[in-house]
Structures are given as C-alpha cells and as structure tokens.
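TL;DR need structure tokens for one chain.
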Amino acid sequence: VAITVPIKPPYMRWKNYKHYKPLEHIHHFTEDSLTDLLDSFGFKLIKKGSPECPPRKYIMSFLFARKDLNA
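>> reply
TL;DR here they are.
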C-alpha cells in the first residue's frame, strides 16, 4: 500500500499548520499514528520519505506491505 498524506510536525501548533482545514479532513495523522493504524490491519512499514518536499511542505509518502501471514 502506498500512501501520501500531509503530516503535522510534532513541534507545530494546529492553528499554524497549513494543512489543518476543519471539516475538510476526517482525520489528521502523525507518522506514528498512521504506522500504528496500518499495523493494526496487518501491514508493516517498508519505507517512508518526503519525495515531494520541496516544493511541498509537510507531505510524506509511506510504503507498507502485508505482514507474513504464516508467521
């Protein structure tokens, strides 16, 4: 699964976060919360990075794969 989403830096306040738009997004993720969510559905993080930055700020891409079902 490949996902690219805005990720709020931990040091930034919500009111200063450019991607915070009330009623536009159902949920906002941190790196940990997105990884934890996918882990709970049986996926492991393979790679993460910010290939779109610059020019875009606070956008991260993640690559997840199914965990070994036989383990």
